[in-house]
């Protein structure tokens, strides 16, 4: 049974050109130069960028085929060796496929026992991936998906809490407006389907993976879905109680400070935290901090005459 490349040779329609010329690189091009040339052409010729353009689609297939051969070091070396030997396995039409010294056709039907690396392996593998079955009867492989790209975006604390649009620059110069969900957390990764690199095989493009970094806030902090805040209050507010204005991620609210509050007293504002994974919001924990004025002669005079009630020991819990 003739193998795929031999069959195509006899039919005179391989549909492929010299891979180096197809990618526009020299025969001494490095792997990185080949990869860069392919990415540039794939971006220009991808069917998504050229809807209805049959010529661009056909050239895209040729570019993908050429990249598949030249990106495989083993296949590229065997291809180059064949060319140096005077054969022209090159990827052109009937005249370029299989032309040996003196213009004699080259027989691609070489037995498997000669080992991996014969022309049969090169072209059978190549044509198996790009259409139909190879000489060994292998099924056509599904086109390989393009590579994913990764990027990190830093958002401020309030944007992470409330959500919103954020512009992101991707490798290659493209920009996207990313929808940051409300309740986004530091280290969370957003997957944008189809926004990665084009496929070398004509398959689906890869995805863009956007990692979120949340900047610190000047007075809010986060613990899970809860928001924490240290709230300074006066000695009078702590001793007598008071209604005070407290900032939250939804805007300021009025909160009642209980009489006799001490530094470290925690007040819980239910539902004023971040949105959780199940839709329920966390709370805001307000830690009261008694702040004394740096200079208050009246307060100083009062305290010099004041004594705590009998039995009161603020460090009682620290006694061994």
Automatic annotation (TrEMBL):
Q: Give any GO molecular function from the UniProt entry.
A: unfolded protein binding
**Segments forming domain J:** 18-83
Q: Name one GO biological process term.
A: protein refolding
Gene Ontology cellular component terms for the protein in this record = cytoplasm
- InterPro entries per UniProt: DnaJ_C, DnaJ_domain, HSP40/DnaJ_pept-bd, J_dom_sf
User: Does the keyword tRNA processing feature in the UniProt annotation?
Assistant: no
A single Pfam family it belongs to is: DnaJ
Is the keyword Mitochondrion in the record?
A: no
Q: Which PROSITE patterns match?
A: DNAJ_2
Q: What keywords sit in the KW lines? A: Chaperone
Q: Source organism's superkingdom?
A: Bacteria
What protein am I looking at?
Chaperone DnaJ domain protein
Organism source for this protein?
Answer: Maricaulis maris (strain MCS10)
**Lineage, top ranks:** Bacteria, Pseudomonadati, Pseudomonadota, Alphaproteobacteria, Maricaulales
């Amino acid at each position: 049974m003739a193998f795929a490349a031999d069959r195509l040779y006899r039919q005179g329609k391989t549909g492929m050109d010299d891979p180096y010329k197809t990618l526009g690189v020299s025969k001494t091009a490095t792997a990185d130069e080949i990869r860069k040339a392919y990415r540039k052409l794939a971006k220009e010729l991808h069917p998504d960028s050229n809807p209805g353009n049959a010529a661009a689609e056909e050239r895209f297939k040729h570019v993908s085929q050429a990249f598949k051969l030249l990106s495989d070091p083993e296949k590229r070396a065997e291809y180059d060796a064949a060319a140096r030997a005077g054969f022209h396995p090159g990827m052109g039409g009937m005249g370029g496929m299989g032309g040996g010294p003196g213009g004699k056709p080259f027989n691609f039907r070489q037995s498997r026992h000669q080992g991996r690396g014969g022309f049969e392996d090169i072209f059978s593998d190549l044509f198996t991936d790009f259409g139909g079955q190879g000489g060994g009867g292998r099924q056509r492989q599904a086109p390989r998906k393009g590579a994913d790209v990764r990027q990190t975006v830093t958002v401020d604390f309030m944007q992470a809490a409330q959500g919103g649009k954020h512009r992101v620059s991707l490798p290659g110069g493209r920009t996207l407006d990313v929808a940051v969900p409300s309740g986004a957390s530091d280290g969370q990764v957003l997957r944008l389907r189809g926004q990665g690199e084009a496929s070398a095989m004509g398959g689906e493009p890869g995805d863009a993976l956007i990692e979120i970094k949340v900047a610190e806030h000047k007075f809010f902090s986060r613990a899970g879905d809860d928001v924490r805040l240290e709230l300074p209050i006066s000695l009078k507010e702590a001793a007598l109680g008071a209604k005070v204005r407290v900032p939250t991620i939804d805007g300021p609210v009025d909160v009642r400070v209980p009489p006799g509050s001490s530094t470290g007293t925690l007040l819980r504002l239910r539902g004023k935290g971040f949105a959780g994974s199940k839709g329920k919001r966390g709370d805001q924990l307000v830690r009261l901090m008694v702040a004394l004025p740096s200079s208050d002669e009246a307060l100083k005079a009062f305290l010099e005459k004041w004594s705590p009630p009998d039995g009161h020991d603020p460090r009682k819990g620290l006694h061994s």
